[in-house]
Write a structure and sequence with these properties.
- The protein is an alpha/beta fold.
- Helices cover 42% and strands 18% of the residues.
- The strands form 7 sheets. Strands 3-2-1-12-13-7 form a 6-stranded parallel sheet, sandwiched between helices. Strands 16, 17, 18, 19, 22 and 25 form a 6-stranded antiparallel sheet that branches. It has a 4-stranded antiparallel sheet with strand order 5-4-6-8.
- Helix 13 (340-370) runs antiparallel to helix 17.
- It binds 5'-O-[(L-methionyl)-sulphamoyl]adenosine.
- 5'-O-[(L-methionyl)-sulphamoyl]adenosine (MSP) is lined by residues 14-17, 25-26, 28-29, 54, 232-233, 260-261, 263-264, 292-293, 299-300.
C-alpha cells in the first residue's frame, strides 16, 4: 500500500432491495465500487466503502405475505444470501447497513424530526398515482403511456393522510447547485434531465404512508411509516453516526461519490440534496449514474426467466474472470448487452490468451534459460527500452482513466502493456538468443524485462482482480505488500526465483461452455413454477366468493376521477352500479353491451363518492386490462 496519506474517500453503492436474490446486474455496481475502493486504498486514501440493503416498504411486505412469513424473516433470509454473495465475490466493503438495524432506524427518526423542526415537513392529504414496485408517487404528466416511467408497470390512484416534505422550496437551490458545481452530477445530459424535471415544477414530496406498516414509524404520529426513499437515502449518514454521534460523520462526510444506477439518479440528485439542505448539512461531492446490463433487449427479470446468477458464473469461471469481464466490457454510464458469448470471448481472449499466456511463457522461459532465477538487466536495445517505457507510464494512464470512472479504459491501458509484452517476446525471440552464447546479456535483459512487466501488471490489476495479483506474484517469486509507487519502477526483480504454477486462466472451449450454459437456463415450465402466488387458501375461502355473469348496460366517466368508469351491470333480475379503475384502458362506449364476470357478493363501498356494488373481473394483459367474459345467461354463477 502507498505510504502517502491522501485523506479520506467515502464511496457508496445503492442499498439493494432484498425482495429477491441479486442478479449479475446488481453485482455490476458493487464490483465497480469495490474496484474504486481498492484503487483508492492503494493510492493511500483512508477509504470508507459502504453498501447494504433497503429493507422496508410495501413491496417487501407484500412479498413476505405472499410467502407466508413476517417481513423481518423474509428479509433476514434474502440478506443472508446477499452477504454470502459479497463474501464469495470478495467485496471489500467497510460497512454493510441494513435499514432495519436500530442504529439506522432511530437516526432516520431523528432526521425526520430535524426536517420537521426546520418547518419543512407538514401534514396534508395525498392524492396521486402510486407505483408499488418503485414505491414512488407520480403525477399524471410524468407517466409514460399511462404507466410508471421507471419500471413501466401500472400505477394505481392512491390517497391518504400523509406528511409532506417541502421539496418545492428547494427547486431553485438545486438548479443553483447544478450550475455552480457541475461535477455534482455527470454527465451533462443527466444534469439537463434533472433541470428539466425541476423546471416542470417540483411538487412537495409525500414522505409518510398509512396503507402498510413495514417501515420506520413517524416519531410524532405512529400510525404513519416513513416513506422508504427518505429512510433509504439517510443510510449514507446514519451509519456515520449522524446526527447524535458525529465523530465518523465529521471524518467522512461529505461522501466523495454515490454510485447509482441511472434510474435512481433522480432520487440522489434531487431528493437527497434537498433533504441535506433542509438539515443544513454538506452535500455529497458527486452522484454518478451507471447504465444497465441488458439481456434479450431489456432488463433481467425473474418472470422472464432470464436472470443471470453471478454465483453460478463464479463457480464456473472464477471471481476474477467475472469481475474483469464486468469492468472491461461495459462503458461506464451506458447500457450494455450481456450474452454468454460476449462474456466467454472476453475471458478467453484477454485473460487466457493475453495475460495467462504471458505469465506461463515468462515463467517457463526463466526456468528453462536461467535456472529459474530472474536475471538483472544487462544492456538495453530499442525493444527493451520500449517495453520499459510503456510499463512505467501505464500507472499514470490508469490513474487518469480511474479519475473518470472509466474502468474499461483503465483495464485497456493495462492490456496495452500485456499485449506489448507478448509482442516483445516475438520480437526478441529468446529461443534464438538462447542458442548463441554471445547473446546472453540480451537474453538476460529479455527475461528480466518480462518479469518486471509482469510485476508492474500485478500491481496495476490489483484493484480489479486482487487474487490474480497474488497468483502472478507467487509465480514470479515476489512476496510482500503491493505498493502502487512500485508500478513506476523497473528494477526490482533481479535474483528472485520463479515458481511455475497452474494456468491462471485456463482456456475455455467456447462452444462447449455455451451449450452447458444454455442447458442450465430454466425451462419455461420452471419459470412458471416460480410464479409468486398469494398464500394458499382453503376451498371454503374460495367458496365464499359468489361470481356471476352479467351484461354492461351503461358505462360513463366518473365525474371527478379520471381513472374511474361507473357501470350499470345487469345480473339476471337485478341491475347494479359498479365503479372500476379502467378508464385508461377503455372508452365507456367500448364496453356497453359486453358480457362480464362480476364478484357479486362483495360488500358495497363508496369509491370517490359513487356507490360500487360488486367488482368486474379483468385480466392483466401487461399493456391493457383485458375483459374476462362468458356467453352464459346473466345472473348465472361462475364456478
Ligand atoms: N433500494 C433502492 C436503492 C436505494 S439507495 C438509497 C433500489 N434498489 S434496487 O435493488 O432496485 O436497485 C439497486 C441498484 O441495482 C440500482 O442502482 C439499479 O440500477 C441496479 N440494477 C438493477 N438491475 C440492474 C441491471 N440489470 N444492470 C445494472 N444495474 C442494475 O433501487
Amino acid at each position: 500500500m502507498s505510504t502517502n496519506n491522501k485523506g479520506t474517500y467515502y464511496i457508496t453503492t445503492p442499498i439493494y432491495y432484498p425482495s429477491s436474490d441479486l442478479h449479475i446486474g446488481h453485482t455490476y455496481c458493487t464490483v465497480m465500487a469495490d474496484a474504486m475502493a481498492r484503487f483508492k486504498r492503494l493510492q493511500g486514501y483512508d477509504v470508507r466503502f459502504q453498501t447494504g440493503t433497503d429493507e422496508h416498504g410495501q413491496k417487501i411486505q407484500k412479498k413476505a405475505e405472499a410467502n407466508g412469513v413476517t417481513p423481518q424473516a423474509y428479509v433476514d433470509d434474502v440478506v443472508s444470501r446477499i452477504l454470502k454473495l459479497w463474501e464469495t465475490m470478495e467485496i471489500s466493503y467497510d460497512d454493510f447497513v441494513r435499514t432495519t438495524e436500530p442504529r439506522h432506524t432511530k437516526r432516520v427518526q431523528e432526521i425526520f424530526m430535524k426536517m420537521y423542526e426546520k418547518g419543512d415537513i407538514y401534514k396534508s392529504q395525498y392524492e396521486g398515482l402510486y407505483c408499488t414496485d418503485c414505491e414512488a408517487f407520480w403525477t399524471e404528466s410524468q407517466l409514460v403511456d399511462g404507466k410508471c416511467p421507471d419500471c413501466g408497470r401500472a400505477v394505481e390512484p392512491a390517497h391518504e393522510e400523509a406528511y409532506f416534505f417541502k421539496l418545492s422550496k428547494y427547486g431553485d437551490k438545486l438548479l443553483k447547485l447544478y450550475d455552480e458545481r457541475p461535477e455534482f452530477l455527470e454527465p451533462e445530459s443527466r444534469r439537463n434531465e434533472m433541470r428539466a424535471f425541476i423546471n416542470q415544477g417540483l411538487e412537495d414530496l409525500c414522505i409518510s404512508r398509512t396503507s402498510f406498516d413495514w417501515g420506520i414509524p413517524v416519531p410524532i404520529d405512529e400510525k404513519h411509516v416513513i416513506y422508504v426513499w427518505l429512510d433509504a437515502l439517510s443510510n449514507y449518514i446514519t451509519t456515520l453516526g449522524y446526527p447524535d454521534d458525529k465523530a465518523e460523520y465529521n471524518k467522512y462526510w461529505p461522501a466523495d461519490v454515490h454510485l447509482v444506477g441511472k434510474e435512481i439518479v433522480r432520487f440522489h440528485s434531487i431528493i437527497w440534496p434537498a433533504m441535506l439542505m433542509s438539515m443544513d448539512e454538506p452535500l455529497p461531492k458527486q452522484v454518478l449514474g451507471h447504465g444497465w446490463l441488458l439481456i434479450d433487449g431489456g432488463k433481467m427479470s425473474k418472470s422472464k426467466g432470464n436472470v443471470v446468477d453471478p454465483v453460478m458464473l463464479i463457480e464456473r469461471y472464477g471471481i476474477d474472470a467475472l469481475k474483469y469481464f464486468l469492468l472491461r466490457e461495459y462503458t461506464f454510464g451506458q447500457d450494455g448487452i450481456f450474452t454468454n458469448e460476449i462474456m466467454l470471448k472476453r475471458m478467453n481472449y484477454d485473460l487466457a490468451n493475453d495475460l495467462g499466456n504471458l505469465v506461463s511463457r515468462t515463467v517457463s522461459m526463466i526456468e528453462k534459460y536461467c535456472g529459474g532465477v530472474i536475471p538483472s538487466a544487462a544492456g538495453k536495445d530499442e525493444f527493451d527500452e520500449d517495453l520499459e517505457n510503456i510499463a512505467v507510464q501505464t500507472a499514470d494512464k490508469v490513474n487518469a482513466q480511474m479519475d473518470k470512472f472509466s474502468f474499461s479504459n483503465a483495464l485497456e491501458e493495462i492490456w496495452v502493456l500485456v499485449r506489448r509484452a507478448n509482442k516483445y517476446v516475438d520480437e526478441k525471440m529468446p529461443w534464438v538468443l538462447a542458442k548463441d552464447e554471445s547473446k546472453i546479456n540480451s537474453l538476460n535483459t529479455c527475461m528480466h524485462h518480462l518479469a518486471e512487466a509482469l510485476r508492474v501488471v500485478s500491481i496495476l490489476i490489483y484493484p480489479f482482480m486482487h487474487s490474480t495479483t497474488v497468483k502472478i506474484r507467487e509465480q514470479i517469486g515476489i512476496d510482500g505488500a503491493i505498493v502502487w509507487e512500485d508500478a513506476y519502477r523497473f528494477d526490482m526483480m533481479g535474483g528472485l526465483k520463479v515458481r511455475k504454477g497452474d494456468a491462471i486462466f485456463p482456456r475455455l472451449d467456447i462452444d462447449k461452455e455455451l451449450a452447458e450454459l444454455e442447458a442450465l437456463k430454466p425451462t419455461p415450465a420452471e419459470v412458471e413454477e416460480k410464479l409468486e402466488l398469494k398464500p394458499e387458501i382453503e376451498f371454503d375461502d374460495f367458496d365464499k366468493i359468489d361470481m356471476r355473469v352479467g351484461t354492461i348496460l351503461e358505462a360513463t366517466k366518473h365525474k371527478d376521477a379520471k381513472k374511474l368508469l361507473v357501470f350499470k351491470v345487469k345480473l339476471g333480475t337485478e341491475t347494479r352500479q359498479i365503479v372500476s379503475g379502467v378508464a385508461e384502458h377503455y372508452k365507456p362506449e367500448e364496453l356497453v353491451g359486453k358480457k362480464v364476470i362480476v364478484v357479486a357478493n362483495l360488500k358495497p363501498r363508496k369509491i370517490r363518492g359513487e356507490e360500487s356494488n360488486g367488482m368486474i373481473i379483468f385480466a392483466d394483459g401487461d399493456k391493457k386490462l383485458e375483459l374476462v367474459t362468458s356467453e352464459a345467461p346473466d345472473g348465472n354463477p361462475v364456478c
